[in-house]
Amino acid sequence: MNEEHILVSRHAAVLEIRFNRPAKKNAITNAMYGAMADGLEQAAADKHMRAILFTAAGDFFTAGNDLMDFAAINSGEAAENAPREVGRFLMRMIEAEKPVVVAVQGNAVGVGVTMLLQADLVYIAEGAKLITPFIDLGLVPENASSITIPDRIGYVRAFQLLGLCEPMSGREAAACGIANAALPMAEVETKARAAAHALAKKPAESLRLTKNLMRNREALTKRLNEEGALFAQRLKSPEAAEAFAAFLERRPADFSKLG
Ligand code: COA
User: Fold this and answer.
1) 3-state secondary structure at position 188
2) What is the model's pTM?
3) Which of 85, 128, 134, 185 could bond to 170 as cystine, CB 3.0-4.6 Å?
4) How far, CA to CA in Å, does 181 sit from each of 38, 102, 121, 122?
């Protein structure tokens, strides 16, 4: 797929997937998910590719799912039978047997956070903020994050993220195990790239088997699907309609008149 907002490139044995839509804070459209899924499939199929690195252009890692795409689903404008590439991307992340490293050089929202919990190594800017506003959007968590986040950081801290929707700083993310290290912004990509190349030099089969042992893909997939069914319903809810309208009109959402 030719998608200018996702750049896929090869550097020695590392496949890099780069968000490249800085004017929209790297918000991810359906086509971008498709290009990301294609990149992961390419890496899986190519024996010369031994690690995957996610990076981003600009000062934002990603503002998460494109809210125009969500609003079109909510209003019924999106074609019912159009492929929902997000599902393919999320499944390819869960299935990935090659190591995935992420360089979070700026703020991350929504799937930009939950994908970190599906990665193997994460380097983040100290001042970056992680935000999971699913409830504030009238939605529910996705990407199996209703189990990956509490499992990783404990229930009450997870609820601060997923329930209160409070931002978490890069420093806190490193302290509680969402990221390996919090670094000055300018060093994040270099550090992550070095880690990806270090992994690419390891014995690939041993690394593959180890990753397989460490990941409970069955539980992740089951939860991904449970969340996905609820998420699809919530996308069409009146609460989500109010949240998307508020974003478009640049005003706070008001849920007080909804049941
Ligand atoms: N979907 C679509 N467009 C988005 C977007 C998103 N998720 N996030 C940002 N953009 C667009 C804005 O509409 C704006 O476009 P414009 O310049 O054509 O008006 C541009 O990106 C810059 O965003 P802006 O809101 O002006 O920047 P900001 O620094 O004031 O705020 C955010 C950045 C990310 C905090 C804010 O844009 C935001 O809250 N975005 C929504 C995040 C979200 O809820 N994502 C879904 C998670 S499930």
Assistant:
1) helix
2) 0.97
3) 128
4) 29, 11, 9, 7
Residue 258 lies in a domain: no
d(CA 197, CA 119): 15
Distance from Cα 25 to the centre of ligand 1, integer Å: 6
Closest CA to 68 of 259, 248, 258, 257: 248
CATH number for position 70:
3.90.226.10
Q: Is residue 1 part of a domain?
A: no
For residue 84, give Cα distances in angstroms to 34, 134, 148, 163: 8, 18, 23, 26
In a domain, 233, yes or no: no
Cβ atoms of 51 and 101 within 8 Å: the answer is yes
| Binding pocket residue ranges, ligand 1, CB within 6 Å | 24-25, 27, 63-68, 109-110, 133, 137, 247
Task: For 17-69, write each residue's pLDDT tens digit.
Answer: 999 999 999 999 999 999 999 999 999 999 999 999 999 999 999 999 999 99
Name the domain count of the chain. Answer: 1
Which pLDDT tens digit goes with each residue over 164-207? 999 999 999 999 999 999 999 999 999 999 999 999 999 999 99
Q: How far apart are CA 141 and CA 132, in angstroms?
A: 8
